Amino acid sequence: MSDANLTYNQQYLTVGQGEAAREIAYIARSQPGQTAGPTLVWLSGYRSDMSGSKAVELDSFAAENGLACLRLDYSGHGLSGGKFTDGTISRWLEEALAVILHAAPESILVVGSSMGGWIALRLAQELAKRQDGPKLAGMVLIAPAPDFTSDLIEPNLTKKEKASLAERGYFEERSAYSPEPNIYTRTLMEDGRDNSVLNGIIETGCPVHILQGMKDPDVPYQHAMKLVEHLPADDVVLTFVRDGDHRLSRPQDIERILAAVKGLIR
């Protein structure tokens, strides 16, 4: 089913106060007469948005299977307001949590891609502290990149990039997915350390299915193995895609992702 065949209720939610306020775009498609099953929640990766192929396919899957679906654009991404360079894990997590609490589903199954996988894990930690949030029914993590700032970027910084971070507060890196460079700020790096999850046991309280390409140039497959070590209390399935890249957005990859979602709903 294509994006054009679905009817959406696109809305905006103001998150933050004063100068920190930003308009967050989200699409909540309710399922009339839904009696069972979690709401599927899509969390995008760094510089990705809710109109990407995996997000749209997840929404189509939800529609075909009688489930509600929720997806959002972080500030500085897609249709949302705010500056991309103001973005941090804390800020994007705050937005995801605000949209979910505003939509108020009873239970959710979170699908997080790349950085969205990190935000999904932090979301589980934040929901566990609350009485008013939805029940977390499951988690599908696609090439998850928890702690990518400290574990994957900082160890590989060049002298030039370190100097740029120190002098200008950011550095730029050529993107394989866009003509515009990736921008990493000092604030993002520092905030990443505050949101680290690979420094102890992560308890999501739900089953987790991780899908990881073995030819991923951005998040090495060993990173997924490291994550599994930090999830000892959860029912975790790790699927390696031998010829898979970082995006995992080929038809056969999307099929695997949707099969993982279906498996957790059952």
TrEMBL record:
Q: Which UniProt keywords apply?
A: Hydrolase, Transit peptide
Q: Which domain of life is it from?
A: Bacteria
AB hydrolase-1 domain residues: 55-253
Which Gene Ontology terms cover its molecular function?
mycophenolic acid acyl-glucuronide esterase activity; palmitoyl-(protein) hydrolase activity
Reaction(s) this enzyme catalyzes, per UniProt: S-hexadecanoyl-L-cysteinyl-[protein] + H2O = L-cysteinyl-[protein] + hexadecanoate + H(+); mycophenolic acid O-acyl-beta-D-glucuronide + H2O = mycophenolate + D-glucuronate + H(+)
Q: Tell me its EC number(s), please.
A: 3.1.1.93, 3.1.2.22
Q: Which SUPFAM superfamilies match?
A: alpha/beta-Hydrolases
InterPro entries, per this entry? AB_hydrolase_1, AB_hydrolase_fold, ABHD10_acyl-thioesterase
In this record, what's one Pfam family? Abhydrolase_6
Q: What does this protein do?
A: Acts as an acyl-protein thioesterase that hydrolyzes fatty acids from acylated residues in proteins. Regulates the mitochondrial S-depalmitoylation of the nucleophilic active site residue of peroxiredoxin-5/PRDX5, a key antioxidant protein, therefore modulating mitochondrial antioxidant ability. Also catalyzes the deglucuronidation of mycophenolic acid acyl-glucuronide, an active metabolite of the immunosuppressant drug mycophenolate.
| Name of this chain's protein | Palmitoyl-protein thioesterase ABHD10, mitochondrial
Q: What is the lineage of its organism?
A: Bacteria, Pseudomonadati, Pseudomonadota, Alphaproteobacteria, Hyphomicrobiales
